[in-house]
Amino acid sequence: MLLNKDMGNSKSSLDFKNDGVRAMKNSSSEELDSYYPVRPECLADVPKTRFKARVGKTLSERRWKAAFSKEGYLDIAGVLRRIQRGGIHPSIKGAAWEFLLGCFDPDSTFVERNQLRQQRREQYAAWKSECQKIVPVIGSGKFITSAIVSDDGQPITSDDGQPIASDDGQTIASDNGKSIASDDGQPIASDDGQPIECATSTSNSPDNSDAMPAGNGDFDKKVLQWKLSLHQIGLDVVRTDRTLVFYESEANQAKLWDVLSVYAWMDKDIGYVQGMSDICSPMIILLENEADAYWCFERAMRRLRENFKCSTDSIGVQSQLSTLAQIVKTVDPKLHQHLEELDGGEYLFAFRMLMVLFRREFSFVDSLYLWEVMWAMEYNPNIYSSYDDKRQPLLSELLYDDKPNDKHKLKEYGKFERNNLKTGAEPNSALSVFLVASVLETKHRRLMKEAKGLDDVVEILGEISGNLDARKALDEALKVHKKYLKQAKKS
């Protein structure tokens, strides 16, 4: 008999109701932090958590279970309303994320989802086994922080002449491996906001259909590039969310490394780029099964993958930075002109915010809240079918082909998406871009008065870390979105 993975262990509805109300009433910031405990010595270094679960607003375990029909169909409209009002309680966060990110269709049954989950777990196990045959450390509970091959593909040995990654799966961890993360663990960008490293790609979507290229030359090249990335993934793993008790466990670090390594193997055009570990880490924490975490991360990357594309001429996130510039120029032309005069017209100072979705500006709890509310606001009911389409057309083609006319269907769209549908706006601007624009607008006075150079801009924006309220920031982002659409329509 298939187990009901969406609903969890059986329990009386009265018990669920009582437990849910008690949990919500007792969910202070401190108690929510207990779901993701911080190492005592790091408490002074992490931003304060502002999010609090609220009865009647936050999606609770009881409300989540009640949103499913007897067969397993999910009332996605009701779930979206609740998430947009108050986020998701940690007890059911991972399960809800799988729907928000398009892993599952709300119009599927428990049985259908359980079968799909099992198929995906088997597929992940096959890909992981494929990787393990090449590098036995994969799946061993350990991970690599030293390069295992040179640029020309020759194995690198340790001082005693043994390969860094030997057949028994052991690895020699080294702190002197080349890293593009700073000493304080900040990824992605240097102090002046310039990106440090990225991958080169020309593909529109990850190709998971064929992990073994036909030509031996192509395959050898792919293997080499992948092996060269493994120690960098390891170096980033030890820096990712290192303030959390969860990652004191080497097994949990290895789980994150395994998922990122398998993803890098499957996404043969981009592979691994620094910053992906920040996106993947919450999935590892929220979803106990490694394969489930992989698929949740893979769906998240469908949204963000374009940001990680790079060529010799441009960085992937450049398109969002250009959109940001256009938004600020429209809603706050004086600020835009001031930034241009400071040589900041390309908005590279916002690079990290967009790449890792404000992970550095909020506490761990608040950043998860920010993500899930953004995803709920951006939710499009066609997301699952678009990801499941074997033709892999552009996402926007599928998401916006069938525009709903009835009010009931519109309720299945997030607030941000509904606004785009109603106004006929182009589906090319993520809510996160408007979030950055709203942050800049709220800092208008200081930026205009105090910013005499880009270093000042970076410093002023750096001060928002720990001081931003995610709920208020999102409300301001929606206001900027509305203002932008209004101004753009006039012009």
UniProtKB/TrEMBL annotation:
Alphabetical list of SUPFAM superfamilies matching this protein: Ypt/Rab-GAP domain of gyp1p (SSF47923)
Sequence ranges of Polar residues compositional bias: 168-179, 199-208
Source organism superkingdom: Eukaryota
Positions of region (Disordered): 152-216
Span of domain Rab-GAP TBC: 87-378
Pfam families: RabGAP-TBC
Listed InterPro entries: Rab-GAP-TBC_dom, Rab-GAP_TBC_sf
GO function terms (MF aspect): GTPase activator activity
PANTHER family: TBC1 DOMAIN FAMILY MEMBER 15-LIKE ISOFORM X1, TBC1 DOMAIN FAMILY MEMBER GTPASE-ACTIVATING PROTEIN
Protein name: Rab-GAP TBC domain-containing protein
Native source species: Solanum lycopersicum (Tomato)
